[in-house]
Specification:
The protein is 23% helix and 22% strand. It is α/β, with parallel strands linked by helices and 422 residues long.
Length: 422
């Protein structure tokens, strides 16, 4: 079963702003005309109905968007980088790879065409034309393109089905879904014949519903034993459950209780899902002979089971009729009580502001806009250093340095660049 994976994504860096001047007579340096860099491409995840699994990610787990192009002279803007669109099945939940216990969800892609941006491309740097002023008519500074975002993500596929068939291994789930739909799962007389969910479609009159055979589980599945979480996570998207019990079991009621206990231990909401209990294998003489006793035992725990023989079809039409009726009740109630809730996580704005700290004799400046300038230019040139000083004053960096106790001549660092501040 390949229904979850980890991927790494990186958006494109923004292109650098250009330092360029027009070549015009009688105009100092020709006047600035450096264009802006292009924006880096985003990484987008989109749900599609054309695929139903995550096997693509067995081969490819790293995705990179295109960087923006650098700006050019004559105020020409660099081309924006192309986005990367990652296609996933409908029902995929996108989460950040975080510490254990953090249940943050970035997006729940439950509809075809739904998209979420998981890594934003960096902004293009400003060209030197933006730094011209009445006192600085020949700006020799520009911005470096902003770095694109990166992230490690978990993609988890949860089936979206109307009805889920649950029960211990070998109770006849595969046989039942074969009997009620066109699905053809593997059927064999040993546990865990079905290793991943199987989808089928049931039809009645002009209505059809999706039914899913959920792989069997064992005791302590909520701890990961057997198919464990691979089984349990798929039940969360179903509207209701058909709980299939083996009538030939020594304790069919106890089997049902143990399965429901596993559901509740994994997620308390699962144990509250509407269920129809069906006792299978009524075609076996031993089961038929004890039908009355089995029904009485279930009634003692407030359950009225249906009796079926999935292999021969006995009782199956009645089970389907009951399932359709229960599903209509659930759907009607949901339409009345449903409160729309946003599913897509909205990224927070990029961090801004200016911070100054003192480390080992150096004043460390955290100012993204300033960093994009100092990493783009040569501060060894006096003209550039002077122009940078004016930009630092304009951005409020000088005031922040003075507040932190810095005096002229102090060593300062922004990003990877260190210089003497005057």
């Amino acid at each position: 079963m390949f229904d979850w994976t980890e991927i790494d994504v990186r958006a494109g860096n923004g292109g650098d702003g250009a330092i360029s001047f027009r070549h015009e007579k009688y105009v100092p340096f020709g006047g600035p005309d450096g264009g802006d860099g292009g924006k880096g491409g985003d990484v987008v995840i989109e749900a599609s109905a054309s695929i139903d699994n995550l096997r693509l990610f067995q081969r490819k787990r790293r995705f990179r968007a295109e960087a923006g192009e650098a700006g050019r002279g004559q105020k020409r803007h660099g081309r924006n980088g192309r986005d990367v669109v990652i296609t996933v099945p409908v029902g995929t939940v996108v989460s950040p790879k975080t510490a254990l216990g953090d249940n943050t969800i970035i997006a729940d892609l439950s509809e075809a065409g739904q998209q979420v941006v998981v890594a934003r491309g960096g902004r293009g740097g400003l060209g030197n034309v933006h730094f011209a002023s009445s006192t600085n008519q020949t700006p020799q500074i520009a911005q470096k393109g902003e770095a694109g975002e990166s992230a490690s993500l978990i993609l988890e596929l949860k089936l979206i089905a109307d009805i889920g068939i649950i029960g211990y291994p070998n109770v006849g789930k595969s046989t039942l879904i074969t009997a009620v739909s066109a699905a053809h799962p593997k059927i064999a007389p040993y546990p865990f014949t079905t290793l991943e969910p199987v989808l089928g479609v049931m039809e009645r009159d002009d209505r059809s519903v999706v039914i899913a055979e959920i792989p069997g589980l064992v005791d302590e599945a909520h701890l990961g034993r057997g198919l464990g979480h691979d089984f349990l996570r798929h039940i969360t998207r179903t509207r209701m459950l058909i709980h299939l019990v083996d009538g030939s079991s020594a304790e069919p009621v106890a089997d049902m209780v143990r399965v429901n206990t596993e559901l509740g231990l994994f997620d308390s909401a699962l144990a509250k899902k509407p269920q129809l209990v069906a006792v299978n294998k009524i075609d076996l003489p031993a089961v038929r002979a004890h039908r009355t006793e089995i029904a009485k035992a279930f009634r003692e725990v407030a359950v009225t089971p249906l009796f079926i023989a999935a292999a021969s079809g006995e009782g199956v039409p009645e089970l389907l009729e009951a399932a359709f009726e229960r599903l209509e009740e659930i759907t009607g109630a949901a339409e009345v009580t449903a409160v729309p809730a946003p599913k897509v996580f909205r990224p927070q704005p990029r961090a801004g502001g200016i911070k100054v700290s003192h480390e080992a004799g150096v004043y460390v400046i955290e100012a993204p806009e300033l960093q994009r300038i100092v990493e783009r230019v040569d501060l060894e040139k006096p003209t550039v250093a002077a122009q940078l000083g004016r930009e630092m004053k304009k951005l409020g960096v000088n005031a922040a340095l003075k507040k932190a106790g810095a005096t002229p001549g102090a060593r300062v660092r922004c990003g990877t660049v260190t210089w003497d501040w005057y």
